[in-house]
Amino acid sequence: MKQGGFTLVELIIVILILGILAVSAAPQFFNYSTNAEHSAIQSLSSALKSGVELTHYQASIRQLETENMSCLGGKFDTADGNCSENGILLRFGYPAASVENLNKVVNLNDWEHLELSTGNAITFARTSEKLSTECRVIYRYDDIGVQAPTIETRTNQC
């Protein structure tokens, strides 16, 4: 009488091989959330850089890059220093550092933000807990108007 099946030794060898494969592949699965966070930060940084440059090009065409404060796509109200009609507030041709203003350049609805009290920098992160960590994008504006805004990415603690 012939029986079919696997011996105990064969089953143990297969289980050992599967265990070794699982242990070697597991770190890659745990790394996916970090990679996704890095990609989201880089994506926002790239979108901000592109949006700021396009806005500056439009301001240059309209010769607004030399004005301390102006408005692109709306009317500038000198009384309160804001733009009406959904315009973008500009400082020397670049979007001024405010969430409302930058949201007209790039969609920021999925991002948490923190505006610094100096009024020239905004920090963006995926969650409010990450605003104070090294997993964020910082939009920093030069108040003097000598340099273009800088957009920093920090991904050390994602």
TrEMBL record:
This is Prepilin-type cleavage/methylation domain-containing protein. Pfam families: N_methyl (PF07963). InterPro entries: N_methyl_site, Pilin-like. Signal peptide: none annotated.
